[in-house]
Predict the structure.
Amino acid sequence: MEKFATSEEMNQNNRHSQNREKIIAAEKIFSYENLLKQYYQCRKRKRNTINAIKFEMNLENELLKLQKELETQIYNPGRSIYFVVTKPKPREIFAAGFRDRVVHHVLVDYLEPIWEPKFIDQSYSCRKKRGAHKAIEDLKKYLRIITNNHRRPAYYLQLDIRSFFMSLDKDILFALINKRVKNSKVLWLAKKIIFHDPTTNYYCKSKMSLLKLIPSHKSLFGVAKSQGLPIGNLTSQFFANVYLNEMDQFVKHQLKIKYYLRYVDDLVILSENKEELKIWRDRIDKFLQEKLKLKLHPQKQILQEVNKGINFVGGIIRMDYVLMRKRVINNLRQRLLNFNQCPITTREMLSTINSYYGQFKNCNTFHLRKKLWHKNFNELNNIFIPVDSNFSYFKIKQ
């Protein structure tokens, strides 16, 4: 009897076919056409920076020069911009220059179709259509299932990996890339970016007092040269998923945990059995130490009933509704106050405000969005206007 493929199988086969086609086409990874394509992707959010403007003023020559460096494998990453952000906690950022960001887009664009079919559905960071909104929706769905719509108790375990980006082992990461990639050009570029040490060539734009806020184990200046990735680069975000995919596969296929979600290094696991969660925690910690040279943070572990609410991806999540964190709301209020007192460019203000309102859409925040507009925008009401009665986001007044 002839067996027909299900619609799900056909969709999966189509996705894999599209991925294979993209990988084959990417054999011309360093072509001028591909560099131009990645330049357009890169400039979407960075077009107004000084480096981006300089690059664009001499675009053709810059791309041809970059193409030659990549083809002859003499390319080296340039100077990074080093600074410290203090919210929600002090962190150091090594932001690559615009030219290097184009190269990062080239590499990630090639690697994504190789890894996307291998990533689990419950990994949410830095993936198309799998961001914070999808994470919240899935967690709410799992909460309804495991509690049978409030009819039985359940527990959640929330875990955090200690100093993840600073502890990541570069040799292990490159071995994972090397295992899947056969293109020698791609391997050369991946190795160049992974093992690049931004602490040897950077421009610091933060005050010394801020630099002292960073503990040594949280800084690339304080860890071994064989470990750590700079926070703030597209490649680092993608490599984080590649690295922790090993843990994801262990959780799903060895431990067979059904209700598990991960956003970067923040993990949430659901179960009806509290003791089961403790056993899983210990086994995950052992796997991380033995296979990935990582550790769970001993002080950042929460084990309690799900009806307490789960603090995940920017909100306090319950099965019926989501609340926005007070910290995020207070940050926006402070931003609005600053904009009224010391305004920056209209576009920059609009981008910041809409970024916050984009987060609010994940939560039950209609009254909050409306209240902020009436009480905190003040003079900004003369510049911006809501696009709809739900205060979804704002546009510039004509």
Observations:
- The first helix runs from residue 7 to 25.
- Residues 171 and 226 are 7 Å apart (CA to CA).
- The chain has 15 helices and twelve strands.
- Residues 1-5 have pLDDT under 50 and may be disordered.
